[in-house]
Amino acid sequence: MRLTFPHMGLLSLPVETLLNGLGHEAVPAPPTNKRTFELGAKYSPEGACLPFKINLGNFIEAFEQGAEGILMGGGLGPCRFGYYAQIQQRILADLGYKFQMFLLEPLGGERQELYRTLRMLLEKVPLHQAAAAFRLAWQKIRWVDQGNALLRFVLPRSEDRVKVQRSYEGFLAAMRKEKKLEKLGDHYRQLEKELQVDRRPETARPLRVKIIGEIYMVLEPRVNFHLEMLLGEKGVEVVRTMSISQWLEEHLFGFFYPHHRQRTVLLSTPFLPAFVGGHGRETIAEMVDAGVNRLDGVIQVLPFTCMPEIVAQSITPAVSAAYQLPILTLVLDEHSAEAGVMTRLEAFVDLLWRRRAGDKGARRVPSGVLG
């Protein structure tokens, strides 16, 4: 079956590998662009959050490429992500598209849908080939996340940032094509070797800023205006705990990786002792982590009307005051403009440099929050 899926950061790389390895044909949508935004906004409910609209636009563009089915995730709790697939299915059917929707529901959700999806995915290949495909996809995303972390460390310290980005893009292209498990580490080591050459002396001390918030907005660069690259080019090292592999470890393989949930509960409980859906509690936990580790600042990115992140945003002043931590909140929708985001980023980065230099005026921000 020709299957498509939503874009979210580097998600397409392991998903393409998995679907093709299981005997299906992956049909990724074109990279998210202006038309994607327009299609999603046109056919979505006005109050839907931005990830919903972009996903819908991705699916319409993938159908134009010949996709026959959608592989989509499900969710639980007070977050509208749990309803994405059902509502999108109705909208697309009303538009006249003929397709099948397959859901990867979490274990606490509708298991019938999960079993149906797994049967479809595994029906074309023997079990040993399916296991090899899953393993290759899993290791790819682990290595790719590691490469992304290396890029975020090196970029603000590099003499030639264009060359660094070019090397990273070459690494991603090689990882996308690689079919041999044992070669994945070689591509990472080659990237490491190329980036090591261009690193400036260790005397350079870039600002260290953590990016937190709703997972789609954090990981999808075409929606957050390439936030990580923009900051790296301004000499800011981006610290980010959230990643595809981390999400899978916590939500799919949580039994084997209990430390993720334990860490979130431990750090967030003094400020937010209850689950509020989405990544609301994780957002508070990461703010606390940034304060404890004396990072220079935090940027929270969320879609307009996202309830879990709005709850977290309401607690932000308390966390900021407790750790004297500047926090910038970016609320984005399809009407957000790059110029406005750039202006706020420049002001925030300037504030952080002045704080580091000991500018007392910059330290008198009452809550440490720029909203």
How confident is the prediction overall: mean pLDDT?
A: 90
Question: What's the arrangement of strands in the largest beta sheet?
Answer: 6-5-7-8-9
Helix content: 40-55%
- What profile does the largest beta sheet have? 5 strands, parallel
Radius of gyration: 21 Å
- Overall tally of domains: 3
- H/E topology pattern: EHEHHEHEHHHHEHHEHHHEHEHHE
Strand content: 5-15%
Uncertain parts: 360-371
Number of helices: 16
* Coarse shape: globular
What is the CATH fold-level name of the largest domain?
Rossmann fold
Instruction: Tell me the span between the first and last alpha carbons.
Output: 46 Å
The CATH architecture of the largest domain:
3-Layer(aba) Sandwich
* CATH class placement of the largest domain: Alpha Beta
Total number of strands: 9
Structural class computed from helices and strand pairing: alpha/beta
Q: In short, what is this structure?
A:
This protein has three domains: 2-125, Rossmann fold; 132-205; 206-371, Rossmann fold.
Key descriptive features of the protein:
alpha/beta; Rossmann fold; 11% strand; 371 residues
Question: Could you please describe the fold and organization of this structure?
Answer:
This protein has 371 residues and is an alpha/beta fold. The protein folds into three domains: 2-125, Rossmann fold; 132-205; 206-371, Rossmann fold (3-Layer(aba) Sandwich). The protein has helices at residues 12-21, 34-43, 50-64, 81-94, 111-122, 127-154, 161-177, 184-197, 215-219, 227-233, 244-251, 259-268, 280-292, 307-323, 338-357, 360-363, and strands at residues 2-4, 25-26, 69-73, 100-104, 207-213, 236-239, 297-303, 327-332, 369-370. The chain has a five-stranded parallel beta sheet, with helices on both faces. Helix 14 (307-323) links the parallel strand 7 (297-303) and strand 8 (327-332). The longest helix has 28 residues, at 127-154. The chain is globular and about 65 Å long. The model is unreliable at 360-371 (pLDDT under 50).
